[in-house]
């Protein structure tokens, strides 16, 4: 959720606008690009490298990114309506694909991520990405997990939390085959849900998610573009880090209609950097969440 009391007042608009983010975060990149596309200047704060930035977030009472803030007024970057209020400009929502079209994109993305995972050598799965402590294995798991968290919400009314989306694998998911099976199971579950309930679902209902007041249609769209953006990163990883040409790589046209960021990795940091660390984050060491 956001804290918008005082947004748009002259006093608040006089304060600097800051965006708190971390590399490789799809929502963080979208937030930065959204503000830049609307001609809004802001101070960019990478919380993985700026300890004061992380302390700022703690003072606001949050431990997640992206956050756009002016003093005590802040918005979760996943909701552009709220970000625009903090930034001080009018924003009209974009046109979304119909739910059935988004469903087809999600299935396509899950298929593709499975193909690419099969190409990653076992001894490379725990290599860490540039700019953040997330391994190749965790990145693929995250793609598979995003639709699963959506399904938990629509099938069981489970809480849709930031913590649920963290890319930390269960202790019993140790092999590539385990991860491939997880992806297949989530794909089968997704299409089974659609065939059973999808066409009868009211997508105008409240999404009931941690990041703000959005419709279920918006949550489904986010499921598509969020998993799609990270799949673009897997394609980049195969090519640039492992020297492997992806099996039937998805093209920009495949994602048409989903509001993906323009950049694949980040608009400030290069994917050519070395790994962030020797080991990926764990639930005990994660800085956000």
Number of domains: 2
What is the strand arrangement across the widest sheet?
2-1-3-4
Query: Which oligomerization state do the chains in this entry correspond to?
Result: single chain
Name the poorly predicted regions. none
Shape: globular
Distance between the termini: 14 Å
Give the SSE string: HEHEHEEHHHHH
Brief synopsis:
The chain has helices spanning 10-13, 26-37, 51-60, 80-87, 99-119, 136-156, 176-197, 216-240; strands at 18-21, 43-46, 67-70, 73-76.
Describe, in plain words, how this protein is organized in 3D.
- The model has no long low-confidence stretch (mean pLDDT 96).
- This protein folds into two domains: 10-87, Glutaredoxin; 99-255, dinb family like domain (Four Helix Bundle (Hemerythrin (Met), subunit A), Up-down Bundle).
- It has helices at 10-13, 26-37, 51-60, 80-87, 99-119, 136-156, 176-197, 216-240, and strands spanning 18-21, 43-46, 67-70, 73-76.
- The chain is globular, with a radius of gyration of 19 Å.
- Strands 2-1-3-4 form a four-stranded mixed beta sheet, with helices on both faces.
- The chain contains eight helices and four strands; from the N terminus they run H-E-H-E-H-E-E-H-H-H-H-H.
- Strand 1, helix 2 (26-37) and strand 2 (43-46) form a beta-alpha-beta unit.
- Helix 5 packs antiparallel against helix 6 and helix 6 packs antiparallel against helix 8 (216-240).
- It has 289 residues and is mainly alpha-helical.
């Amino acid at each position: 959720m956001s804290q918008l009391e005082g947004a748009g007042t002259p006093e608040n608009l006089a304060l600097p606008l800051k965006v708190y983010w971390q590399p490789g975060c799809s929502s963080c990149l979208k937030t930065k690009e959204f503000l830049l596309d609307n001609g809004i200047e802001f101070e960019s704060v990478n919380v993985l490298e700026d300890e004061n930035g992380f302390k700022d977030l703690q003072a606001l009472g949050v431990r997640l990114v992206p956050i756009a803030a002016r003093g005590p007024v802040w918005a979760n970057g996943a909701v552009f309506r709220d970000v625009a209020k903090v930034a001080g400009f009018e924003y009209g929502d974009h046109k979304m694909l119909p739910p059935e079209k988004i469903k087809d994109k999600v299935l396509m993305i899950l298929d593709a991520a499975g193909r690419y995972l099969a190409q990653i050598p076992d001894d490379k799965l725990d290599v860490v990405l540039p700019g953040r402590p997330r391994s190749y294995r965790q990145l693929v798991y995250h793609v598979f997990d995003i639709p699963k968290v959506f399904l938990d919400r629509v099938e069981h009314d489970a809480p849709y939390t930031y913590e649920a989306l963290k890319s930390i694998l269960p202790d019993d998911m140790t092999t590539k085959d385990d991860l491939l099976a997880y992806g297949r199971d989530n794909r089968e579950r997704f299409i089974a849900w659609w065939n059973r309930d999808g066409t009868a679902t009211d997508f105008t209902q409240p999404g009931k998610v941690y990041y703000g007041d959005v419709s279920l249609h918006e949550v489904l769209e986010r499921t598509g573009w969020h998993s799609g953006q990270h799949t673009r990163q897997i394609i980049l990883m195969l090519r640039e880090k492992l020297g492997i040409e992806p099996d039937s790589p998805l093209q920009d046209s495949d994602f048409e209609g989903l509001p993906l960021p323009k950049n694949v990795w980040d608009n400030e940091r290069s994917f050519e950097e070395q790994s962030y660390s020797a080991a990926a984050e764990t639930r005990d060491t994660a800085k956000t969440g």
